[in-house]
Amino acid sequence: MSLPARVLDTLYQAYGPQHWWPAPTRFEMMVGAILTQNTAWTNVEKALEKLKSEIPTLEASTLLALPPERLAELIRPSGYFRLKTGRLRALCQWFVDAGGFECLDGRTTKELRHDLLGVYGVGHETADSILLYGFERPVMVVDAYTRRIFSRLGAVTPEIGYEPLREWLEAGLGTKDRVSRYNELHALLVRHAKISCRVRPDCASCVLCDICAYSGSDEAIPEA
């Protein structure tokens, strides 16, 4: 069994299914992918609550109709709210111009990823989150937690690039049930990083300690 597959199985046995992404609609999930940049999900939830108090059903057209200043005020709890206002409006405009899900669902994953990466403020992690959770496409999401855990396991270097790490994980997870497996592994890695594999690791509580190169270390491995 490959290391990514073993990590998935071990974490799933320890924590169970995570039921990600925590959003009721596909478009709201896309909004959340922007708002969660550089902040915790609890702050995103506060921002979404404020947005939905004014716009009960979040849609690209209704968000674009809001004055930018008002949109910025509503998403203030997510942090970097002025920057995210521009990014959210850019994503909404792209979504509207592309014809919404009706048209976008017909595009290949490669085409969608290329287009998303061309939207202002959408980097690889945000694009892949939208693809995996919003469009249910088989694209593994890589974040700081992913890099932290697999570098501590000794599988990759902390300096590994986004694309090589994503491709290595996808190859290790095989071709069966890719969307569900990518979804679950990403969510489980986030869960594990918050419980045990923190910036200063709690190796005593780690369910991966028997395969971890840094198990038992008193020294924290800097977060990438």
Give a quick set of tags describing it.
mainly alpha, 12 helices, 2 domains
Q: Per CATH, which architecture of the largest domain?
A: Orthogonal Bundle
Strand tally: 0
Give the % helix.
55-70%
Secondary structure category: mainly alpha
How many structural units, i.e. domains?
Answer: 2
- Mean pLDDT, to the nearest integer, reads 94
In whole angstroms, how far apart are the ends? 27 Å
How many helices does DSSP assign?
Answer: 12
CATH class of the largest domain: Mainly Alpha
Write the CATH fold name of the largest domain. Endonuclease III, domain 1
Write a concise synopsis of the structure shown.
This protein is 58% helix and 0% strand.
Tell me what the structure shows:
The structure is a single chain. The chain has 224 residues and is mainly α. The chain folds into two domains: 3-11 and 142-211, no CATH class; 26-134, Orthogonal Bundle (Endonuclease III, domain 1). The chain is 58% helix and 0% strand. The protein contains twelve helices and no strands. Helix 10 (144-152) packs across helix 12 (178-195). The longest helix has 18 residues, at 178-195. The protein is globular, with a radius of gyration of 18 Å. The two termini are 27 Å apart. 33% of the residues are buried. Residues 220-224 have low confidence and may be disordered.
Topology:
Elements: H1 3-15, H2 26-35, H3 41-54, H4 60-65, H5 68-74, H6 81-97, H7 100-104, H8 109-117, H9 124-134, H10 144-152, H11 162-173, H12 178-195
